[in-house]
Design goal:
The structure holds two protein chains of two kinds.
Chain A: E1 6-8, E2 11-13, E3 17-19, H1 28-36, E4 41-43, E5 60-62, E6 67-69, H2 78-90, E7 97-101, H3 106-117, E8 123-127, H4 134-137, H5 145-156, E9 163-166, H6 174-183, E10 188-191, E11 195-198, E12 200-201, E13 206-207, E14 213-217, H7 222-236, E15 240-243, H8 249-257, E16 260-265, H9 268-272, H10 276-291
Parallel strand pairs in A: 3-4, 3-16, 4-7, 7-8, 8-9, 9-10, 10-15, 15-16
Antiparallel strand pairs in A: 1-2, 5-6, 6-14, 11-14, 12-13
Helix pairs in contact in A: 1-2, 3-5, 5-6, 6-7, 7-8, 8-10
Chain B: E1 11-14, E2 17-22, E3 25-30, E4 41-46, E5 50-55, E6 58-59, E7 64-69, H1 73-79, E8 86-93, E9 104-110, H2 114-126, E10 130-137, H3 146-150, E11 156-162, E12 169-170, H4 173-183, E13 188-192, H5 195-205, E14 210-213, H6 237-240, E15 243-245, H7 246-249, E16 258-260, E17 266-268
Parallel strand pairs in B: 9-10, 9-13, 10-11, 11-12, 13-14
Antiparallel strand pairs in B: 1-8, 2-3, 3-7, 4-5, 4-8, 6-7, 14-15, 16-17
Classes of the chains: A alpha/beta, B alpha/beta.
């Protein structure tokens, strides 16, 4: 049996699958349930300083090939994370936890970094790439390399914990944004956030999502994710949570070959349920056994030249 | 998920008929083959307004009903709609009541929980069951579906309670359940209504297996958003439920105590 454990920014994960931010993960119970179902680690839903209401429904729908959502980062604010989510998760902590945070200003990000640092996450992930709150909060920071770097620099000064950046794919050169973040002190990346998308209900003659446009995820975006991970890995050599369209073990292996150390999994839950985590892990093991891979670390970035 | 090929896009459906149940509640009839089972729910989208979960009050191969009480912006918008207007429907989602052949059932409902229980009663009759239909409300004018239930024949017995005693048993429907259980040996109890009421129903059930239709805040209804995750198992109300065994539910740390809002904050009952 292959060794599936990996180390990411000094944190040991029993297997490379990590629940991506925004799917399930509203409560500690939910995060723990995902670990019970086989995930190697979990990411919180994006946490704000203050309560954020999010968008009205419809907030999501899926088809065989893609999934579109605009939940709008609904959250109760960092107080709930401090008082409830983290203490309850860290009591009998079953696997590493990544605290994903979001704010609309650099100062807000810095303040929130300090607040979340005290909650005790293994890793802090800056959500600089959500496409669904542009109406209220402007373009995501990771659309522009300099803006992303400015956030990273401000947050870096507030924490000694591993600090990673979740990047938007909705840019012409994601690698240059990653390089700017790395120079500002980022320890790694999560890529990709969702792509821009919109779906129109032809019978209602209007967009399905209440927010009109949303973020595209699911099976169809995997090639975009593989390319982005490949480019970031090549440009920075920093560890990456490779995320986007991973539905099964072979997808996860492909992401690792593109440079992912961990593999972020979100929309898979729509297709296979939370139980799908254990299945993905088993499929990775089967592939390793078939290919004679003893240690999964061997394949990280192996397809990058 | 009871959805073909992972497709959760809406189906545009016309309202075929609207029946006024009382001053706050209407039943909307859609002539579509939804394929829902008793206990399941659909997500209903009023374009431009919102989308919410609603229990199915009746379903056969030709039509299905949603009985809706005007409480929030979405249900109030539905309340303004007319025959021929279109809404978006997706589903059915969630678990169903497990009705065995020839069982003696008590269907215990509070308020508009009576509507989905009508669907349960109809299906139970097909399986040769005897049904005690117990429903409670604050007062007589809020009781639902009495005539419909009366039309189901001799194998269904209507019992009602009101808080103010304006009709039927004066008190809670769960107290009425205890009264009925003195005379009738039940095989199962199904409950649908406010969580505190269902908790009391579960306790009153004693050794009789009870099943509850749990209601938690949901965004998607199909297992992605995580808003309806229950403490402290983390199971999702939309997939593990809405119908769940009392034996499971009674062990939940949040049962009868709180539910969560759209941002995930706790609200005490």
């Amino acid at each position: 049996m292959a060794d599936l454990s990996v180390e990411f920014c000094g944190v040991k994960f029993q297997n490379p699958t990590v629940l991506a931010s925004g799917i399930l993960g509203v409560t500690a119970s939910s995060l723990k349930n995902v670990v019970r179902n086989g995930a190697g680690g979990v990411t919180t839903k994006s946490i704000w300083l203050k309560e954020n209401i999010g968008h009205a429904n419809p907030t999501m729908f899926g088809t065989d090939s893609y999934f579109l959502n605009a939940v709008g980062l609904s959250d109760a604010g960092v107080k709930k994370a401090q008082e409830e989510t983290f203490p309850e998760y860290l009591k009998d902590k079953p696997a590493p936890i990544i605290g994903n945070i979001v704010e609309s200003t650099i100062d807000g990000f810095a303040e929130l970094t300090e607040a979340i640092d005290k909650c005790g996450p293994d890793i802090i992930e800056l959500n600089l790439g959500c496409p669904n709150v542009e109406g209220a909060h402007g373009k995501p920071f990771s659309c522009v390399a300099g803006d992303a770097a400015a956030v990273v620099k401000a947050c870096r000064a507030r924490t000694k914990r591993p600090l990673i950046v979740k990047l938007t794919p909705n840019v012409s050169d994601i690698a240059s944004v990653a390089v700017a973040c790395a120079e500002a002190g980022a320890d790694g990346f999560c890529a990709i956030n969702t792509l821009y998308g919109m779906g129109i209900d032809i019978n209602m003659r209007q967009p399905v999502l209440k927010n009109r446009s949303g973020g595209l995820s699911g099976p169809g975006i995997k090639p975009s994710a593989v390319k982005a991970v490949h480019d970031i890995y090549k440009a920075t050599k920093l560890p990456i949570i490779a995320t986007g369209g991973v539905m099964n073990g072979e997808d996860a292996i492909e992401m690792m070959m593109a440079g992912g150390v961990l593999v972020g999994i979100g929309t898979m839950v729509y297709y296979r349920g939370a139980e799908g985590f254990a299945e993905v892990v088993r499929e990775m093991e089967e592939w390793c056994d078939k290919e004679g891979v003893k240690d999964l670390k061997e394949i990280i970035g192996c397809a990058v030249k | 998920m009871n959805v073909k090929n992972h497709d959760t896009r809406f189906e545009a459906m016309e309202i075929s008929e609207i029946v006024e149940e009382n001053s706050y509640t209407k039943t909307y009839v859609f002539k579509y083959d939804l394929g829902a089972k008793p206990g399941q729910f659909v997500m209903l989208w009023v374009p431009g307004v919102d989308e919410k979960p609603f229990s199915v009050a009746y379903c056969d191969s030709g039509e299905f009903w949603l009985t809706i009480c005007a409480v929030g912006p979405c249900s109030k918008a539905i309340y303004e709609m007319k025959v021929g207007d279109r809404v978006g429907i997706r589903g059915p989602f969630g678990t169903e009541y497990d009705i065995g052949e020839g069982e003696h059932l008590a269907l215990v409902s509070g308020g508009y929980g009576a509507a989905p229980m009508y669907f349960v009663a109809k299906e139970a009759l097909k399986k040769g069951c005897k049904v005690e239909f117990l429903t409670g409300a604050r007062s007589e004018d809020l009781l639902l579906f009495e005539e419909r239930v009366a039309g189901l024949g001799d194998d269904v017995t209507w019992h009602c309670s009101t808080d103010d005693g304006s009709k039927g048993f004066k008190g809670y429907v769960t107290q009425l359940l205890s009264e009925v259980m003195k005379d009738v040996k039940l095989d199962k109890i199904f409950a649908c209504g406010p969580e505190v009421m269902m908790k009391a129903a579960g306790e009153a059930a004693g050794d009789v297996p009870a099943y509850l239709s749990m209601e938690k805040y949901m965004k998607c209804g199909f297992g992605v958003c995580g808003q309806c995750a229950i403490d402290d198992t983390g199971d999702l109300c939309c997939k593990k439920g809405p119908v769940m065994a009392y034996d499971y539910v009674k062990g939940l740390s949040e049962f009868g105590k709180y539910h969560r809002d759209a941002q995930g904050k706790k609200n005490e009952y």
